[in-house]
Fold this sequence. Notes:
The protein is built from 14 helices and 16 strands. The protein has three domains: about 5-170, no CATH class; about 185-190 and about 265-385, 2-Layer Sandwich (D-amino Acid Aminotransferase, Chain A, domain 1), CATH 3.30.470; about 195-260, Dna Ligase, domain 1. The chain has helices at about 15-20, 25-35, 40-50, 55-70, 100-105, 145-155, 165-170, 175-180, 195-210, 240-250, 305-320, 320-325, 330-340, 380-395; strands spanning about 5, 75, 85-90, 110-115, 125-130, 135, 160-165, 185-190, 195, 220-225, 235-240, 255-260, 270-280, 280-290, 345-350, 355-360. The longest helix has 19 residues, at about 380-395. It starts with a strand and ends with a helix. The model is unreliable at about 210-215 (pLDDT under 50). Strand 6, helix 6 and strand 7 (about 160-165) form a beta-alpha-beta unit. Helix 2 runs antiparallel to helix 3 (about 40-50), helix 3 (about 40-50) runs antiparallel to helix 4 and helix 9 (about 195-210) runs antiparallel to helix 10 (about 240-250).
Amino acid sequence: MKFELSQEPLLPIESHVSIARTRRDEALQMLEMAMLDPDMANRFMRLFYLFQGTQQEEFSLELQSKALSLRQTYRLQTHPKEPALRLLALCAPGDMRENCPLDYLVEGQAIQLELLYLMPQGSPPQRIPDHDVAMVAMGYSKKNAPLLKTLCEWATHWPRPMLNHPSWVFYCERQHASRLLKDIPGLIMARQDKHSRQALLSIAHASQTHLASSALPLNLPLTIRPCELHAGIAFELIESVQALGHYLNQHTEPEFYVCPYIDYQSEDKQFRKFRLSLIQGVPFVSHLAVSKHWVVHYKSAEMELDELKKNEEKSFMESFEDRIAQPFAAIFREIYRLIPLDYMVLDCALSPLGELIVFEVDNSAWVHDTDSEELFPYKKAIMKKTFDAFYQLLKRQEC
C-alpha cells in the first residue's frame, strides 16, 4: 500500500472556532458568503459547519454528505501567515461530536490545518494532502469502529508521523477504559459495563417479582445511559428496582452503560468536575464546573452567572499545577502508559477524601477558550499553556 502526497490548491473555509467567535449579527453575512462560494464542495461543507448546533442536525448532515460526495479534503481557516507546520486531521463523517475539533487547539498558531475524511467501506485514498504530521481526530463510537480498524491497517504505511494511533482510540470506549484503568493505585474509576436492554429488563422484572432488592445482581445506586448517547442525554441515577424498570420503559435503546454511582458531593452540597488535556501524560487544565446537580456540565452549571463560582474556577485553574498536576503526576503517567494516546481529554473530580476520580477518557472531547473574556478574564492565559504544549507536541513529531 502506497500513498501519494499531493498539494491541492484548497481555499480555507470557516472552522468551528471562527464561527464560535462570530457575532450573531455577522452570522447572516457568513451564511450568504457560503451560499455564493463557487467551489461546491466548500459551499456544502461551510453550510454544514454553520448549521451544526442549530437544532437542524439532519439537514446539516445532508449538507456534509453532499460535500463529501464531491471531495474528502478541506482546509480550515487558522493562521493568516505562512504556516510553519502542516497538520492533517483524519476524520469520520458525522456531527461535531465525531471528531476532535483541532481548530480550537491550533487557533493563532502558525499551523495549516487540513481535514481528510475517511469514508465507510471506502478504498484507501490514492492521493492525500501533503503534511508534516497527521493526527487521528475521529473518536470512538460504534459507527466509527470499522473506520478505525481500517485506519489501523493504513497506519503502518502512512508516509508521515501519525499522532493518536487508531488502535488506542478503541480504549476510549467506556467499558474498555474503566477495566484498563481501574487498578491504578490512588485512582477511583468505577467499572462501567455494557448491558442489553433485554438483560436489564429481565433483571428488573425478576427482582420485582421474585427477589428482594438486595439480591439485585447490580449494585444500587447506579447510573445508566444509552451507549451511543453523549452530553448527559438520558444519563440518570437509579436508586431502586422500580426506578430501573421505569427508566427502561422510557428508553428503548438496545444497549446501556451501567456504573456504580460515585458520590463526589462536597461538604457544601455542590458537585465539582474539571476537564483536563493529557498531552503525552502531562495534564493541562481546561475548566472547573460547579453545580448542585450530580450530572455536571459546564454550560448547565451556568458558571457565568455566579461570581463565587468564577472566583473558585480562577483559583483552581491558577493553582492546578500544585493542587492536581503534581500530586497526581504518577496517576497521569500511568494512564498514558496504559492508553498511550498522545492527546486525550479526561473528565475528573476529587472524592471527599481528596482522591482523584476519572469519569471519562476521550480523544475527541472539546477543549477551547471561546468563553467571553469579559466574563472569564483569567482563562486565556491559562489555556495558552494547553495550546503551546499541543504545538510543541506537533513540532516534536515533525519530519
